[in-house]
Amino acid sequence: QVQLVESGGGLVQAGGSLRLSCAASGRALSASRIGWFRQAPGKERECVARIGWSGWSGGTPYYADSVKDRFTISRDNAKNTVYLQMTTLKPEDTAVYYCALGRDPYWGAPPNYGMDYWGKGILVTVSS
Predict the structure, then answer these.
(1) pLDDT (tens digit, 9 = 90+) per residue, 52-102?
(2) Most exposed: 21, 45, 57, 74, by fewest CB within 10 Å?
(3) Terminal CA-to-CA distance of the chain, rounded, Å?
């Protein structure tokens, strides 16, 4: 049974930083596709950052244009944890953030990219 548990969310002022963590159990993250998604009220879920299997070319991270150069996805295989470092936060980054895992090496179509497991989500609120 794969479980994903997010932590690190909260309230931050615009321009500040937060680091989200997603601890996985039941499957090695090194052999998984990992993504951070968010959903703001009244908006569709979007993928903000994703990274493929370690050691594959899919290990290159990809970012949504809205967060490029501000967010960084990383993976600690020893801790089986994936992180999302968020800097220069903006009020429009306010959303529930989810981590997700895909079992096979191949990305599906957006918006969910064929992910198989999802965390429960964690709220990030950026005040102006």
Answers:
(1) 877 655 578 999 999 999 999 999 989 999 999 999 999 999 999 999 999
(2) 57
(3) 40
Asked if 43 and 62 touch (Cβ cutoff 8 Å), the reply is no
Residue 32 vs residues 3, 18, 67, 125: alpha-carbon distances, Å: 13, 24, 23, 29
User: Are the C-beta atoms of residues 84 and 100 closer than 8 Å to each other?
Assistant: no
- pLDDT tens sequence across 19-30: 999 999 999 888
CA gap 43, 13 in Å, rounded: 22
Q: Which runs of E-coded beta strand occur in the chain? A: 3-7, 10-13, 18-25, 33-39, 46-51, 62-63, 71-76, 81-86, 95-102, 117-118, 122-127
